[in-house]
């Protein structure tokens, strides 16, 4: 197991790369969900405003 974690001496480069990749993926999901929530809220506002104009 320690040989796997050592990554043939490249662990200092491999594990941070995995961490950065994971962080980017998590942030991408968070940002996408926030963007979707903002878009839905704006669409609801536009729909409500259009209903009041009619």
Low-confidence stretches: none
- Give Rg in angstroms: 22 Å
Distance between the termini: 69 Å
Average the pLDDT over all residues and give the rounded result: 94
In DSSP terms (H or I, runs of 4 or more residues), the helix count works out at 2
Query: What fraction of the residues are assigned to beta strands by DSSP?
Result: under 5%
The percentage helix is over 70%
Report the strand count: 0
Shape: rod-shaped
- Which class of secondary structure composition applies to the elements? mainly alpha
Which quaternary structure do these chains form? single chain
Major sheet size, sense and barrel closure: none
Helix and strand pattern:
HH
Features:
2 helices, 54 residues
Describe the structure.
The protein is an all-alpha fold and 54 residues long. The chain has a domain at 23-54. The chain is 89% helix and 0% strand. The protein is built from 2 helices and no strands. The protein has helices spanning 2-6, 11-53. The longest helix has 43 residues, at 11-53. The radius of gyration is 22 Å and the shape is rod-shaped. The N and C termini lie far apart (69 Å).
Architecture blueprint of SSEs:
Elements: H1 2-6, H2 11-53
Structure in a nutshell:
The protein is mainly α. The protein has two helices and no strands.
């Amino acid at each position: 197991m320690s040989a796997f974690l050592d990554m043939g001496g490249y662990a200092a480069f491999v594990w941070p790369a995995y961490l950065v990749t994971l962080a980017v993926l998590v942030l991408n999901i968070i940002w996408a969900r926030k963007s979707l929530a903002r878009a839905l809220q704006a669409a609801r506002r536009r729909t409500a405003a259009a209903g009041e104009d009619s």
